Amino acid sequence: MAVAPVSLSPSRAGDFMQCPLLYRFRVIDRLPEKPSEAATRGTLVHAVLERLFDAPAAERTAPRAKALIPGQWDRLRESRPELVELFAGDVDGERLARWLAEAEQLVERWFTLEDPTRLEPAERELFVETELDSGLRLRGIIDRVDVAPTGEVRIVDYKTGKAPRPEYAEGALFQMKFYALVVWRLKKIVPRRLQLVYLGSGDVLTYDPVPADLERVERKLLALWEAIRLATETGDWRPRPTKLCGWCDHRSHCPEFGGTPPPYPLPLPQGRTAEQAQGRMGPE
Length: 284
Prior knowledge:
The chain has nine helices and five strands, in the order ααααααβββαββαα. The chain is α+β, with helices and mostly antiparallel strands. The longest helix has 24 residues, at 211-234. The two termini are 27 Å apart.
């Protein structure tokens, strides 16, 4: 049964900012999405980099990391059987072999950007959650948290794509500032550094936040949550067409492409029609 959203993560906040209707499809309707090679490769690489730190520092080498890939791929398929679809019809295994080789390249590139033999993460794949004074609950999973002997905190996130152009860097940092805000509210410590490691292009983007930055992020999230609350109550989820629509799994349900959203599964206020909730009409 569909329920109204109760918390916000960086991914879902990004969905709403990209397209409110996409947010509805993912959070309220929970429409299925086909697995993609790129996203699955990212999940695989993240798992390998997390597991590598199980080994003693001296053994955290590129060959060892690449050797982890087959086993982590097997575990991923066991936990997510739908991934079998990715390479359906790949009888000779060429596509899978090429895909795994690309994952190896990303893992190998990481060693040119960071030296794991000199790192001892305080946390890996850390789930964080906090409730703001407003009642808004924030949650997410941080790839890695490093803590210096002086107590300074660094939040690290791996990206398997390419670094954005400078004019888009602020958007890329939104997720990291979100995490920094959660850590600040939880631990009463502003992280010393936010670090995005782009394995696709071999770039490292860093940012040193200050309380004023995180207060601005908090205000932005509160405004975003208010917009989500209003859309949830009224059923008015507007599509926002962009170039990203070409990659959306839900075009068959989107009015912008001649589709019809499924019936709105949450109660509507008196006087609100199902057609309006499905995105075919504007508010009264």
